[in-house]
Here is the input.
Amino acid sequence: MAKEAGNYQLVKKLNRISTLNIIRQHKSISRKQLARELGLTPTAITGIIRDLMAAGYVMEKGLGKSSGGRRPVNLHFIPDSGYVIGAEITKSKTTLGVVNLDAKPLVINRCNIDMAEPRRGLEQLAGEVKKMIKENHLEEIRILGMGIACSGLVDIVTKVVKRSPNLGGKWRDIPIETWLQEMLGINIFVENNSNAAALAEYTFGRGKETRNMAYINLGEGISAGIILDGTLAYGYKGYTGEIGHLVIDENGPLCNCGNNGCLESLYAVPALVRKANNELALYSGKDPLKTIWREKGSVTIEDIITFAGDADSYAGKLVRQAAWQIGKGVAAIINLCNPEAVFVGGILATAGDSLLEPLAKSMQKYAFPELAREVRLELSTMQKDTGFYGGCAVAIRALFDGGAEALLDV
Ligand SMILES: [Zn+2]
Here is the structure.
């Protein structure tokens, strides 16, 4: 008996989730249409809608077309019925915020959190989350989950961060979901940052118009998230898209993967900043970036991007050279996956056309012509915040895929 009752409860919950998903996908829908789409009886639908309305997820608004008789009442999903927290964590900076269930942001904070010690860094993050909830007077009951985007290898089965050299050497086998769940009492969903960003682009950005796309993250590392036929391509453990480890120069610098001369070891943001600072020290010509270097003793990626617009300047040449080489990695993705669109994000993407134009030329040269000709290469819709929206998208996906009790327990 107990098992049957359990099954009945489960079916009831799953029916609620499916109903909510259909209402969310349509702008407005009547009970009759819903019953038809879900293959449920009108009585069952009436009961489900009553529960969903009581829980605040659905409202009645306007009248639909009559198919003879009374015009049916339309149902709408209420995006502000719940919120999710999103975070993108990097070595020293975390973007943290809250969005509604349509990914509309309520608040976005940027905090300096040192992640070198994983446990201490995550405790600090939990503290920032609590502070954000309090300062913004958010109703805790409406916070349905939190998604975390982080660099490195995230095992899709165990949800453990296997290794993340860009976060720090101590990031090995870190059970980030379990730890944060204990610290915050919120459902936590972790995802690799490029996968998360690809999901954000696909769910909320211009990627919506495609079924096959890639997102290239140009930040502390270089990696890709790939959507094939509407689904994130995970591979065996979730470690797809590591294009940063394409070897460009066998005699190049040592990469944190153990090889020499990987794309990432030469052209990811830390490598570009290091190269600029080393070369500017010896640079004798007149250049705006050299002036900054003289004033401050070093330059940042933001300084490089500020002057990248002038193609003849040091910064312009550096960004163009990086874009040309990164184009080889993008060409590899195009040759392997045949996407309709490739979105470029991460801090380097804020260089805009200075990056995109040479990258497009290089991609056209190195990818197979028929594939290259049909692909759209664009800047990411959400630019440097794609990782943050990625965290949000991961949490929202988990909720609506039925993975979270928070949404089911209405
Ligand atoms: Zn490497």
Q: What stands out?
A: DSSP finds 15 helices and 16 strands in the chain. The first strand starts at residue 29 and ends at 30.
